[in-house]
Amino acid sequence: MVAKFELSDDSVVVIIGTGAGGGVLANELAQKGVKVVALEAGGRYLPEDYINDEWDSFGQLAWTEPRTTSGDWRVSKDFSGLPAWIVKAVGGTSIHWAGASLRFQEHEFKAKTHYGDVDGANLLDWPIDPAELAPYYDKAEAKLGVTRTGGRPGLPGSNNFKVLEKGAKALGYKEVNTGHMAINSVEYDDRMACQQTGFCFQGCKWGAKWSSAYTDIPRGEATGNLEVRDHSHVARIVHDDKGRASGVEYFDQDGNLQMQKAKIVCVAGNSIESPRVLLNSHSSMFPDGLANSSGQVGRNYMRHTTGSVYGVFDKPVRMWRGTTMAGIIRDESRHDPSRGFVGGYELETLSLGLPFMAAFLDPGSWGREFTSALDDYENMAGMWIVGEDMPQETNRITLNHGVKDAYGLPVANVNYTDHPNDRAMRDHAYARGKAIYEAVGATRTLPTPPYPSTHNLGTNRMSERPRDGVVNMHGQAHDVPNLFVSDGSQFTTGASENPTLTIVALAIRQADFISNEMSKGNI
Amino acid sequence: MATKVSPKGMTRRQLLARATVAGASFVVGSGFVAARNAAWATELTAISPTAFATLVQMARDIYPHDKIEDQYYVIAVKGYDTAETAPEIAMGVSALDAAARGKGFASYLYTSWEDDRVRILRGMEESPFFQKVRGGLVTGLYNQKAIWPVFGYEGESYSKGGYINRGFDDIDWL
Ligand SMILES: Cc1cc2nc3c(=O)[nH]c(=O)nc-3n(C[C@H](O)[C@H](O)[C@H](O)COP(=O)(O)OP(=O)(O)OC[C@H]3O[C@@H](n4cnc5c(N)ncnc54)[C@H](O)[C@@H]3O)c2cc1C
Ligand code: SF4
């Protein structure tokens, strides 16, 4: 029985966005008996709707409304209107994600303490004790069915993994395996095992990969406490004269402006849209945007230090067969400044189909140097670099008043410039990637620049002191007690791991906090 | 340069017989372009045949794959043959021809060697015309399923049950 709440019902928790963060929070709250209205800008798509075709799938699921870019990152030149690759659908980017699910390391929660002062970086320790988060990581791994945790077996190694593994071992790397993946290696939680179709980025048609679209969302709806309104684009959060959030204005599927009253509002639109919503919610009481007395809303945008390395061999690899990202080398994710940078990085297998390879291998390049690489597509192996990038105040999301979306709202501008630490790390990782493939006999290796951001973090960060960030250790806004941030934008720093497991762990933890505070009458 | 005969209602052979020659590998007539070996021919509505032949040559020079036939490059740029885009293409091709003349060739199409043509393109790679054509090719060419087998790419796999029993881990040379 799917719930239906009145617009005037001011007892509901309104969640903006239904991806990894919002989708999980919605279900967790609904399971506890809390009434939830989830507003999602995109439509509903289930495994039977997903398309095994890169551009068609992108057209079906991606957020393609206008955004602008600035800064000296190469994405701004190559993909000036597409700074990030994010899904707009019920389930959010958890439809596209590859499933790599790693816990942050203890030192990464205390980056400022361990890395010290880094020039130009706005480093801060997370206001969370890693030991306190550990049980939530357990719950998140169980929810997502993460392999190599909780007694769940690892996935079998694909061709692409075997090449990576052999090169890594030749170089003496020790922590090399098929990853901690939110992809079933055996049937689990009513979802079947991976069939190695190789279109993890396009939505898993078998449901072997976890996505909130077909797990948490329908389960939350089944409680009768959750109403998901799709095609509902949030314009702004409104507040009462005491400065508490009182409702959410959104455009419904017919483009009409509606106003849903709320007891609590949780923002989970991913790290570009979440600060955009807060900034667009400015009022006479909050002229710089909601929850922004620190001026930190939109700042410290992080996207991970990324890049890819492709190795070309004299024989076929056929990297597109099988799971996209089930393969990892973890040895470089330690903090070891003797390498010339703070923090660390992971190396993970990656494959793109031919159409995306053509678009992303070396955007803008042409001629035989480029096409000869593609001619060897069948003989390529690929890996992706995921490293900790430095939070910088000037890397930020701002409102671009010169460009409006279909509803007349100013769009987000994404400004990003690599920190010298990011560049040093990327160069180190490129060199290691090249060495790994050469150790297996690569005849050519190609460094590929960062793609539009798939990991978007930090723009409403957690801080101990209100002046350093936007939310406290529970994701609760320092300025507005009944306003929460429930996605990756609350990350204080980015760590070297893919972010989603941590987003999910924080959402489960936040659901506990919110329902406790509600029952105590504190919010 | 082209004769005023409409190609409508003629056989491909007649078409080719009426054609005037442009460049090395194309046959250009009124309202159509064809391959010299008659492997393909395409009718045009808005764009001039010479400009279209130039565009096809340019497409191959930008993303040269010797195992891919011209017809796929034709498909990749055919979308520019509209009343809306034809003027812009005509201007771009004129600029390209002017650049070729600057290097001592009669036109881009009459620049015989790939190396020379690539040099001409390098000289104008920042121009909006070049960027538009190159950018369009990324999807216009590589998203054609018909050419994927040339690269070994197998495309959709769900309907075949994925690769779990079809070689996801069959590498035998490591
Ligand atoms: C190709 C790809 C591969 C990835 N692989 C991995 C991986 O292997 N491991 C990993 O950890 N992470 C991976 N990620 C990242 C992962 O998908 C994200 O970290 C995660 O989905 C973020 O969760 P979220 O809740 O913050 O946002 P999302 O999941 O993006 O959800 C946000 C939702 O909010 C909606 N929304 C936004 N603004 C509004 C508004 N104004 N009104 C209403 N709704 C709105 C959006 O439509 C969207 O549905 C990958 C991402 C991509 C693109
Ligand atoms: S490879 Fe596995 S997880 Fe990825 S899409 Fe296919 S079945 Fe799903």
TrEMBL record, chain A:
<protein>
    <submittedName>
        <fullName>2-keto-gluconate dehydrogenase</fullName>
    </submittedName>
</protein>
<keyword id="KW-0560">Oxidoreductase</keyword>
<dbReference type="GO" id="GO:0016614">
    <property type="term" value="F:oxidoreductase activity, acting on CH-OH group of donors"/>
</dbReference>
<feature type="domain" description="Glucose-methanol-choline oxidoreductase C-terminal">
    <location>
        <begin position="391"/>
        <end position="507"/>
    </location>
</feature>
<dbReference type="Pfam" id="PF05199">
    <property type="entry name" value="GMC_oxred_C"/>
</dbReference>
<dbReference type="GO" id="GO:0050660">
    <property type="term" value="F:flavin adenine dinucleotide binding"/>
</dbReference>
<dbReference type="Pfam" id="PF00732">
    <property type="entry name" value="GMC_oxred_N"/>
</dbReference>
<dbReference type="InterPro" id="IPR007867">
    <property type="entry name" value="GMC_OxRtase_C"/>
</dbReference>
<dbReference type="InterPro" id="IPR036188">
    <property type="entry name" value="FAD/NAD-bd_sf"/>
</dbReference>
<feature type="domain" description="Glucose-methanol-choline oxidoreductase N-terminal">
    <location>
        <begin position="88"/>
        <end position="305"/>
    </location>
</feature>
<keyword id="KW-0285">Flavoprotein</keyword>
<comment type="similarity">
    <text>Belongs to the GMC oxidoreductase family.</text>
</comment>
<keyword id="KW-0274">FAD</keyword>
<dbReference type="InterPro" id="IPR000172">
    <property type="entry name" value="GMC_OxRdtase_N"/>
</dbReference>
From TrEMBL, chain B:
<protein>
    <submittedName>
        <fullName>Twin-arginine translocation pathway signal</fullName>
    </submittedName>
</protein>
<dbReference type="InterPro" id="IPR006311">
    <property type="entry name" value="TAT_signal"/>
</dbReference>
